[in-house]
Amino acid sequence: MPAPTLLITQDSLPTTVVAGTKFRGAVAVNLTDDAPAVSVTLYASTSPTLADATPLQILVSRRKLKAGKSRTFRFSGATLSTSLPAGTYYLVAQASGAGGDSAPAASTATVTVAAPVVSLAATVDSVAPATVSPGRHATLEVTIANNGNIDSTGLMTINLGLVPAGSTEHANVATLNRNVRVKAGRSAVLNLHFTLPKSEPAGTYRAFVSIDQNGKATSAIGASVLTVEP
Fold first, then answer.
1. Fewest CB atoms within 10 Å of the CB: 120, 162, 212, 222?
2. Residue 149 lies in a domain
3. pLDDT at residue number 52
4. How many domains does the chain contain in total?
5. Whether residue 97 sits in one domain with residue 26
6. Residue 28: per-residue pLDDT
7. Strand partners, 123
8. Domain end: 92, 114, 136, which one?
9. Burial zone of 135 (CB within 10 Å; 0-12 exposed, 13-18 middle, 19+ buried)
10. What is the pLDDT of residue 96?
């Protein structure tokens, strides 16, 4: 029995996919001879060939594909390797049957693969109350934006500090650890409670925050003034 002969007659692919994430799409394959196809393997390739191609997913046909007939394979869980370099790729399909493998068939459309990026930016929104005594509690509201293309997750180390009026140097007053998820292109608002050290000198301050999550760091100084009274 000869190997099947396969063509991709139609494709529906996303424009951009982030390496390491799942994506949705579909390819319509057509058999041009009588050799039935048992399965179809999808690859990501920088050319319309299998040279240096990366396997994505195997799609098994539940019925034999007859000559001149086509079938659309839909995939919702194909995952691009995190090691796949950023660039433009074809989706290349290869059919397998009792007679062996078909020649590869490439999609007309291409997919741009982007490297996964987390980019955090912090903003100090407010501090309350506006006046506080040493040894008493205060709350800092901080917005953390993720301007990257993948979610930022895991343990977040948050350092809170106070910057004296007329200075840019801060003194740390508290360190907090939170499990936080900031979705790609979204932001998260945190209400951070801390106790002002009893030794904190009286004066006017601005709040400072520095954040580190999985090695991605950001810091910010707020505009609101906190007055420390004896």
1. 212
2. yes
3. 82
4. 2
5. yes
6. 74
7. 143
8. 114
9. exposed
10. 75
Residues 27, 72 contacting (CB under 8 angstroms)? yes
How is residue 53 written in tokens? 């191609």
The strand pair at 6-12 and 22-31 is best described as antiparallel
Contacting residues for 62 by C-beta, under 8 A, at least 6 apart: none
Domain shared by 99 and 69, yes or no: yes
The DSSP call for residue 37 is P
Residue 220 has a pLDDT of 96
Q: For the domain that residue 42 is a member of, what is the CATH number?
A: 2.60.40.10
By residue range, what is the domain housing residue 78?
Answer: 6-114
| CA–CA distance, 110 with 15 (Å, rounded to integer) | 7
Q: Which two tokens stand for residue 100?
A: 């062996």
Residue type, 85: P
**Ranges in the chain, pLDDT < 70:** 1-11, 30-38, 57-70, 77-78
3-state helix vs strand vs coil in the chain, percent to 5: 0, 60, 40
Cα distance between residue 85 and residue 149, in whole Å: 15
What's 49's DSSP letter? S
Using CA atoms, how far residue 19 sits from 46, 116, 186, in Å, is 14, 6, 19
Domain identity same for 74 and 93: yes
18: left (phi over 0), alpha (psi -120 to 50) or beta: beta
Tokens of 12: 């529906």
